[in-house]
Amino acid sequence: MHSVIASPADRRLSALIRHLEGSSNAMDSDTITASPASGFPGARNSVFEHVVRGPEDPILGVTVAYNKDSSPLKLNLGVGAYRTEEGKPLVLNVVRRAEQMLVNDSSRVKEYLPIVGLADFNKLSAKLILGADSPAIQDNRVTTVQCLSGTGSLRVGGEFLARHYHQRTIYIPLPTWGNHPKVFTLAGLSVKTYRYYDPVTRGLNFQGLLEDLGSAPSGAIVLLHACAHNPTGVDPTPQQWEQIRQLMRSKALLPFFDSAYQGFASGNLDADAHSIRLFVADGGECIVAQSYAKNMGLYGERVGALSIVCKSADVASRVESQLKLVIRPMYSNPPIHGASIVATILKDKNMFQEWTIELKAMADRIINMRQQLFDALSTRGTPGDWSHIIKQIGMFTFTGLNSEQVAFMTKEYHIYMTSDGRISMAGLSSRTVPHLADAIHAAVTRVV
Ligand code: KET
User: Fold this and answer.
1) CA–CA separation, 42 vs 31, rounded Å?
2) Which residues cross the membrane (predicted)?
């Protein structure tokens, strides 16, 4: 293997091939030899001396900075994590109940799950996102594998495509969740963007979107946010989704849906899956990454699913066999606890019903926070049009504040948010709305 290989996925594959070929000096070129001075006890220099400090993550780093602030006024509106009116993290009652049942069930053991995860969880997850009466499920054309939350599902899906799909280019919206380009690049795909948000109208740049997807090469992969687009809170209308579908199908563009907020946008699980179901209903293929972090509040349990809707049961089963080959060397098999909670809730009618009520309450509280913040800015006469706060959908408001204004709000008001001006409405409460409104008012009147 002397060729020059560019992509990380290719490099990993070639390392694997060398390993399988059994060449004894296979890894020589990758081996770092410690200098003699560092090889004995008491040596002054670390073998890692050359390692430079990496930057904090643009989203999770906001929490790191927040944790270091000792002000009693501090407010974390960075990461998209739901908080109660009291500003506390929430574990849903139905989740507590499911966990109790699992703990009380002495027949449960801690054996490894299969590589693809918990069978019940996979079946129920596909039903949840595609609809109970989905023809694709009835035809056995869907393969679903349990993955490490939304991020892990995107990564496994990306690596599968990099290995087995003929087009390695994925188009992601501009802007998008900050982790998307990193996940897909490291999966071995080449990332390009399509226009999505218009800062002037604070709405969808639909014309730009159609033009960019219209000029994408045939077969390219297109990342779509199923609902509650992050960070903009701007979604296409059902009519616009239909136009997107027609354009994409006419050019054989492959839809890869990221569904991190099902139920959070409208409070209704089916309504929030509309875009995906539209693409599945035409009989075409698509990929869906699902997360239960937000809608079941299972953030740290890392529970999600990757579904690939194929043309036939035979293709789906071969695709699944290859997904296993992606997963096994990555993390072997997924954790059992979170998936068991989800399966317990989804398979019991009463628990499912209880979940939808709690989910709706979370969505409603966020919508209420939008109204309260809008009213507070109106009362203060804050310059500018703030109607986008109540028009946008989901967990975030894309305020339009620039990075200097954000820095000012953090410095003067101890309000933490991402530098692109995104605020997590789920982190706000009636008590903290006035403080945020004061900060926004001061930022737009004092920092231009
Ligand atoms: N997709 C989108 C669009 C998304 O906003 C997130 C998380 C994920 C996937 C991944 O979530 P997971 O926890 O892997 O299921 N977004 C929030 C948290 C984060 O950045 O990790 C956020 O934007 O704040």
Assistant:
1) 23
2) none
Q: How confident is the model at residue 448 (pLDDT cuts 50, 70, 90)?
A: confident
Gap from CA of 260 to ligand 1 centroid (Å):
7
Q: What is the pLDDT of residues 231-253, one digit of tens each?
A: 999 999 999 999 999 999 999 99
pLDDT exceeding 90 applies to what percent of the chain? 88
pLDDT at res. 320: 98
Measured CA to CA, the distance from residue 400 to residue 318 in angstroms comes to 46
Measured in Å, residue 151 CA sits from the centre of ligand 1 at 7
Q: What is d(CA 204, CA 226) in angstroms, rounded to the nearest whole number?
A: 15
Which residues neighbour 335 within 8 Å (Cβ) at sequence distance 6 or greater? 113, 148, 301, 302, 303
Active site amino acids: 177, 258, 294
Q: Rounded mean pLDDT of 361-390? A: 96
SS3 73: coil
pLDDT, mean over the chain: 92
Share of the chain above pLDDT 70, in %: 90
Burial of 309 (0-12, 13-18, 19+ CB in 10 A): buried
Those residues whose C-beta lies under 8 Å from the C-beta of residue 345, and which sit 6 or more positions away, are 94, 95, 98, 296, 351, 352, 355
Dihedral over alpha carbons 353, 358, 363, 365 (to 10 degrees): 150
Residue 77 contacts residue 416 (beta carbons within 8 Å): yes
Give pTM, 2 decimals.
0.90
Average the pLDDT over 15-44 and give the result: 51
- Give yes or no for residue 6 having a pLDDT over 90: no
Task: Please state, in angstroms and rounded to a whole number, the distance separating the CA atoms of residues 275 and 289.
Answer: 13
- Which residues line the pocket of ligand 1, CB cutoff 6 A? 59, 79-80, 149-151, 177, 179, 225, 230, 258, 260, 291, 293, 299, 304
Strands 422-424 and 396-398: antiparallel
Find the 150 Cα to ligand 1 centroid distance in Å: 7
Instruction: With beta carbons less than 8 A apart as the criterion, state whether 444 and 384 touch.
Output: yes
State the Cα–Cα distance between residues 129 and 263, nearest whole angstrom.
10
Minimal-distance CA residue to ligand 1 atom 9: 150
Ligand 1 pocket mutation, candidates 64, 177, 290, 331, criterion most atoms within 8 A of CB: 177
Residues 296/289, Cβ–Cβ less than 8 Å: no
Weakest mean pLDDT among 36-50, 146-160, 266-280, 378-392: 36-50
* Closest Cα to atom 1 of ligand 1: 260
CA distance 46 to 325: 37
